[in-house]
Amino acid sequence: MWAIVVVNYGSSALLAANLVATAAAADPDVVVVVDNPTTGAERERVRELAEREQWVLVEPTANTGFGGGVNLGVATAIERGATGFLLLNPDARMQGNAVSVLREGTFGAPLTLCAPRIVTPAGTVWFAGADVSLVDGRTRGHTKGATRGGEEAWDWLTGACLWLTSTLWEATGGFDEEYFLYWEDVDFSRRVVLAGGSLRLVDDAVAVHDEGATHRSRRQSDRSKSETYYYFNIRNRMLFATRFLDDEGVRRWRAQVATSAREVILRGGRAQLLRSLAPWRAYVRGSRDARRIADAR
């Protein structure tokens, strides 16, 4: 048996647009939706959708974050007898044949974590593998064509869409909930390797992802991100460092906190800095907490 597991946060419209189609095409044994709470009206919309589609709905009373939601969803799927899991963002969708190809990636290799090639609705490549530099913590998508120039880096797979087995889940212990949002997929990818597993990009399996549909600020330009996005991307880089680097590596990444934070903020462009205090707050809070994490090691 296998399951689709989705963590929702105020995205019932995306579930209706993407998960309904994916589940109909892929025909999983069970679909588990973990609905992190936002409003009463949103919770009711998700309930109605889950009842109509016969999904298993998990309703935490507090926001568990992405990693906590995934852990709840997979635990629920395991209780229902599932031994394979497609982790899917609300803003992502797949055709049935693509899911089949992705699942084949673990046949005979249960300790493999698989991800599809991910494209935007316009068809441009959004994800085809990525790595994180051990020098300064910068992440780089393999689609950008840049090289590390011999710089040591660790590969990782995006949590927007992953396929894995219960064997791998048990070997890794699931997602680290301390990240709350962002970087938990980088962390999980590293722990897969440390557990003796491997990462595989299944290029023949394709998912479509509307990047930003779940974290873009509606009050800002289409390019800008939410304050939550900025804060956790700044903070969690250092949390990852303390999990996996030696003392010298942590000191090296800490010295780059301000530079890294600036790069994260500028993913949303410069115009946002004139219109909103949100990116400034995220810069200050994220940098402060990143340094605190490093210093507490």
Automatic annotation (TrEMBL):
Organism from which the protein derives: Microbacterium oleivorans
Annotated GO MF terms: glycosyltransferase activity
Family matches, as InterPro entries: Nucleotide-diphossugar_trans
Domain of life: Bacteria
Signal peptide boundaries: 1-26
Hydrolase found in the keyword field: no
UniProt keyword annotations, A-Z: Glycosyltransferase, Signal, Transferase
Protein name: Glycosyltransferase family 2 protein
Keyword Transcription regulation: no
